[in-house]
Amino acid sequence: MLPPSSFLLAASLLAALPVNADGIYTKKSPVLQVTGKNYNSLIADSNYTSIVEFYAPWCGHCQSLKPAYEKAAQNLNGLAKVAAINCDEDENKPFCGQMGVQGFPTLKIVTPSKKPGKPRVEDYQGARTAKAIVDAVVERIPNHVKRATDKDLDNWLNQNEERPKVILFTEKGTTSALIRAMAVDFLGAADVAQVRNKESTSVKKFGITQFPALVVVPTGDAEPQLYEGELKKQPILEFLSEFAMPNPDASGKAASSTDSKAKTKTKSKASKPASKPSSTPDDDSTPDSNDEAEVKPAPVPIPVPPLPTLATPDSLETSCLAPKSGTCVLALLPEQGDALPASAIDALSNLANIAHKHAQRGTHLFPVYAIPDINSGSQTLRTALGLEDKQKVEVIALNARRGWWRHYVAEDDFSAIAIERWVDTIRLGEGEKEKLPEGLVGEAEKAKEAEHDEL
Ligand SMILES: *[C@@H]1O[C@H](CO)[C@@H](O)[C@H](O)[C@H]1NC(C)=O
């Protein structure tokens, strides 16, 4: 027999160890795990509504809440944040105290207010079912959606000229959680309105024949575009990201976990083209080889067309360096001796493949051009961006309208995977962008526009 004191010690160690080591939510859980340290950046400063569970792993009610809470997290994916904080962790204890937590679990709904970083925090007292939680949170998703009518739509379209406009045509009088969440995704970057089917002038003007319909009116003179994909958060977000930069936490970590809910079986790599190809082993649990076979377009032997070439400074300016040009990807070709170096050939063919793949799938990709060295515009760009080694091919992305550019830094790795990953970060608006130096974006165009404005 052990002496009682060491028995107690052993027992308390056993009880304490697993508890402190991990909370009740695993890494794969759709519930976002926060700490006292990152609570402000993830929750309090967010433009999204959140619900936060303050819990202790040893608490029975916390454990029984877990399935409902995870289900709520799946249902709210892309709409609001569902988070949990383990108040048993020493580093979180002071914070839980500060938040006035007196029992476990405590659920608080955190709603952004007009003052950034000063959200409204309320105790959630409702039923501890997924549905009740979802309803309470959805009700508090901020509404930045303009309800436009025939009378004021034009006026609204003419406001904030620098922002693209997104219009949902709908038969509904209410503003759905999805569209409200989308307006949050693009807060400050794109304006969102909802127009009812009975606003016949507007409906006619945009040629809408079916409801709901989602239309983007890009900035500048570009034609409005009808979104033709599924009315679901992730594909809409990707589509709109071609026109405006979503807020930093828009795509959310939960993006990959929701899909598992409604369509566990069809969860396919193709449905999340933006995630790093094959580098995330954490969702391999289901062998989806069958699904993939269904989802992949059949390998039709259409030859991949080469990238379009911009051979003159004018064409470069019109396509990518006009004040209202959107994102372009450019391959600046090296000085050409007898033949292009292998790196340039790889870059060109892999970029052409990516562009071709998107064209075949019908997904929107920004234009990709090859810029030969004889185009003096290429020299101007290289000099301005500090890419002066003319023996090297350089791949860059730039957006004249928004004034940023990005360099594909490759150490000669122009492999398909590496380039596609880079292109995907741009599609998602991720990664560091640099400021486009002054004087690159068409001065001639600017002058012309000033005239237009006066007319
Ligand atoms: C919140 O919205 C503002 C625009 O109103 C935006 O500038 C900011 O980046 C957003 N914050 C986050 C954390 O997304």
TrEMBL record:
GO cellular component terms given for this protein: endoplasmic reticulum lumen
Bias type Pro residues, positions = 298-308
Protein name (Swiss-Prot/TrEMBL): protein disulfide-isomerase
Q: Where in the cell is it found?
A: Endoplasmic reticulum lumen
Principal location: endoplasmic reticulum
Keyword ATP-binding on entry: no
Per the database record, which ranges form the Thioredoxin domain? 5-143
Q: Which BP terms from GO are recorded? A: response to endoplasmic reticulum stress
Q: Where is this region: Disordered?
A: 248-311, 435-455
Instruction: Identify the stretch annotated as signal peptide in this record.
Output: 1-21
